[in-house]
Amino acid sequence: MNDFGLMTVFSFGPGGWGAAMSAATVMTIAVAVTGFIAGAIIGAFGAWAKISGGRVVRTVADGYTTVLRGIPDLLVIYLFYFGSSAILTPIGRFFGANGFLSLPAFFAGALAIAIVSGAYHTEVFRGAYQVVARGEIDAAYATGMSPALAFRRIIAPLTLRFALPGLANIWQLVLKESSLISVTGLVEILRQAQIGAGSTRQPFTFFLAAAILFLLISSASGWALQHAEKHFTRGLRRG
Q1: Distance between CA atoms of 176 and 77, rounded to whole angstroms?
Q2: What pTM does this model have?
Q3: Which of 122, 112, 36, 37 is nearest to 76 (CA)?
């Protein structure tokens, strides 16, 4: 065990953990991407509710963002994972099923991340919309565009461009949140590091490897998002 190191963790040969860590990395990315995209969809509706909705809809949207941004993310994951079992198990028993029923770990984790990130997406989209110059919207209507066409051609593209910096920050947040779903038993990077640490009694090596993997994913995605932001906001007037 004394010569056990990072080369062994990332090795694909006999005794190596490369395949397991690679599979866990793919799982982490899959959960993060799923949670991010679903959160963006939730956030788009949330932003619409805050901007264009009636009083009741705005109140609901305000309550959603206030509650979700105020509760620890890990607690939200626990509530979805164990709360789903509290609902599904009695339903299953009613239909004759035996045993403990719950949402699949991947679905529960991705859904929890989506609900949490959706609150942040809501505020990012709302803020980005408010930056769009009102004159550009009025000009679209003046040319005879319908509200739907103006939204598709003018409002949505400009809002998305202004939202890019905030969305990049949310992505980094979602990526780190993905490590929390290890509590559901899903084998992502952190969970695989825990398994490897327990099997080899080398916790520092495996957790260091996990940190390196998260840093690599974060750096690569951050670089891509930064270049996307520069490309799509090139020449864009703010105001």
Answers
A1: 14
A2: 0.86
A3: 112
